[in-house]
Design brief:
The chain has 241 residues and is of the alpha+beta class. It has three domains: 86 residues, Cytochrome c-like domain (Cytochrome Bc1 Complex, Chain D, domain 2, Orthogonal Bundle), CATH 1.10.760.10; 75 residues, Cytochrome Bc1 Complex, Chain D, domain 2 (Orthogonal Bundle); 49 residues. It is built from six helices and seven strands; from the N terminus they run ααααβββββββαα. The strands form two sheets. A five-stranded antiparallel β-sheet has the order 6-5-4-3-7, with no helix packed on it. A hairpin with a 2-residue loop joins strand 1 and strand 2. It is globular.
Amino acid sequence: MKSFVLFAVTAAAIAQDGAALFRARCAVPYCHGQAGSAGRAPKLIGHTYNSSAVFSIVSGGLPAKGMPGFDRDLTAEEIEAVTRYVMTFAGAGPRKNEWGISSRTQLTPELERSRNLFFDAARMNGCGRCHEVDGWGSKVGPDLSRSASWNLRGGSGKGVVTARIGAETFPALVLEPGSVTRLWDLGSRLPVLRTVAGADLQTDAASRWDHAAETRAYSDAELQLIRPFLQWARKQQPDAR
């Protein structure tokens, strides 16, 4: 009985880790939606895959359908954790609070509109493709729920460098420098996480990357409408109370 309880606790912990990995790697604005909902990629709620198939897909990807494999970025244990989490969607019905951020407080209609603008998946240059708020979005730029003020149009572009790999040049954010370097390639329409040999990479602190150009998908009025959601998210942080 004791061993069964230990197994159950361990499985629950793995599933929880898988949820965090899923949010950071899979539930980004241009891939799968939060909590298994649809994004640009198909919804996972109600899927009929078995765990072996899910593990294989997460590991190797589906190149013909644009899904990358994660066997180079995640360990086997992490892929197993994601698999366990995805399997919780199998044959399941619709989930409430698909954004995950409204569970603590019921959002007002104004805040819902503000939130939806931030995470608008129909905009290739939407805020959520680069920024995380309250655990949702992409961890390319800073988590905006941890800031007390926001320059939504200009921004600083802090940390953006010019990267060179052979004849290829692009703006980038370096995550892990070293003999093998991981970086965000900001030169494409959507940020791409790349791993390159450090010896093949050159960086220049000067960059022409422009945050104002990245936010051109929003009007000034729409950026103002986003502010209430960021202010709400900031108030949810422990250090803001």
